[in-house]
């Protein structure tokens, strides 16, 4: 039985009539989801995220999750991570000033931002002498940017895809000016603050202040089954002991599968 739970998207899907869908049902990933992703080698990280969210978000297909803003996708990944591996995220950060490596422990609840008071399909900003109409980056934009030759080209492509029009003195210009390309990411970050989770901390060695970027996709995808061999060994161990079929084992949500594996490794401790 699926342990689906309700979450609220910070931005949500904004329809043409202005209505906004923010409620989504999620379920933790299963072994079948891991196997599905492992079979799709060569996908960009953005494409892998789209596949995972489409499988775990009830009522959202792949095109829906591609249409979500970067912040909405980040929020869903953080919620999936909490449901699968727990509320706390532990990682390491290197100080840019002295190189000291330090431990970082972040609560998913602290990384999630409240739902945005307002959400719009199109935004308008003044950048110098240009008036810009744009939308927020989505998963589809991330997928296209990942196909670029290098990160700089990808970043430029992402911004250009989001620009609806640029006007100067009332006239539409054909190309996106460099000043607009440089300014828009700041405006987009302000409108979609969940897109980047920055954790402020201070180095215990040199006392330098620094910010660490917490990327939910990097964290969650690294924790899922890293190889077909590892997944096969886990299925084998459970099948050998419990005599379950492969399909039954892969249909287990990851927290339950992990618990059964813990019982196999320490049966006495489980009853203590």
Task: Give an overview in words.
The chain has 272 residues and is α+β, with helices and mostly antiparallel strands. It is built from 13 helices and eleven strands. The protein has helices at 31-38, 45-56, 62-67, 70-85, 108-111, 139-146, 151-162, 178-191, 216-223, 228-242, 246-250, 254-265, 267-270, and strands at residues 5-14, 20-26, 57-58, 88-94, 101-107, 123-127, 130-134, 163-168, 171-172, 197-202, 209-214. The strands form four sheets. It has a four-stranded antiparallel β-sheet with strand order 6-7-8-9. The chain has a three-stranded antiparallel β-sheet with strand order 1-2-3. A two-stranded antiparallel ribbon has the order 4-5. The chain is globular and about 75 Å long.
